Amino acid sequence: MNQAVAFVPDAGERRVVPLAGMRGAIARTMSAAWQVPRVAQSIEVDATRLEAAVQALQQQLGPQCKVTLTAFVLRAVALTLREHPRLNARALEKEIELMPDVNIGLAVSLDEGLMVPVLRNVDAQSVADIAAESRRLAAGARAGTLSAGSYQHGTFTVTNLGMTGIDSFTPIINVPQVAILGVTRVAKRAVVKGDSIVVAPMMGLHLIFDHRAVDGYPAARFLTDLKVRLETVEGL
């Protein structure tokens, strides 16, 4: 019986990845986004109560619904955007359009690239509903079964590298949106609480925003309020 042999290129052979199809679309979008006057801000979040909330909701819902930390982050982002509408916006040629709905794009990594399906009206959904919808959209994006409409009308984007060892990164804004939030891993670190040094699970939040639409101070207020909401699990 003949056995298939994997092709291994010679050491000196030239290999290329054509900038066509999905890779070409990503290249064009990223090139356009790179022209935006962007600013980066980062903050660390103590995820102690957040992790406890994930476990508590998972026990309540049972194995039929997989609860993730990302679902809590998405709801917290949506509620905080309601309080900071300048970040829930689109930058157009001569105006900044504040969007009436909070529709959050969730970056999904594929073998051949990156897709960003959109969760609708996230501030009006429960964490359990967000978790279920996130799974549905991610599975559809990977299978290529989502409609074109599933990728449209996003007002803000979240990209999560928490499953990797990355502690910091600066994602590129999904234009014409004016901001994107990068989430990095939860890692145990020595932190000061009061006058004591304790070990706590810390998570990184990395906000990139369009300075034409938002100035540094209001963006920092958004990020700080998001940190407080995640650390207290208030309203989640």
Automatic annotation (TrEMBL):
Enzyme class, first EC level, given as a word: transferase
Recorded GO MF terms: acetyltransferase activity; dihydrolipoamide branched chain acyltransferase activity; lipoic acid binding
Listed SUPFAM superfamilies: CoA-dependent acyltransferases (SSF52777)
Protein encoded by which gene: bkdB
EC number(s) from the headed UniProt entry: 2.3.1.168
2-oxoacid dehydrogenase acyltransferase catalytic domain location: 13-234
Domain of life: Bacteria
Cofactor(s) in the UniProt record: (R)-lipoate
UniProt keyword annotation of Nucleotide-binding present: no
Native source species: Ralstonia edaphi
Acyltransferase listed as a keyword: yes
Short name of any one Pfam family annotated for the protein: 2-oxoacid_dh
Protein name: Lipoamide acyltransferase component of branched-chain alpha-keto acid dehydrogenase complex
Keyword terms: Acyltransferase, Transferase
GO cellular component: cytoplasm
